Amino acid sequence: MTKKPEKPAAGTRVLKTRIKKKSGLKESSRRWLERHMNDPYVQRSKADGYRSRAAYKLIEIDDRHHLLKPGLKVIDLGAAPGGWCQVAAARTKSKPENPHVVGIDYLGMDAVPGTVVLEMDFLDDDAPARLIETLGGEPDLVLSDMAAPTTGHRRTDHLRTMHLCEVAAEFAISVLKPGGHFLAKTFQGGTEGELLTRLKQNFRSVQHVKPPASRDESAELYLLAKDFKG
Question: Is the pTM of this model over 0.85?
Answer without folding.
Answer: no
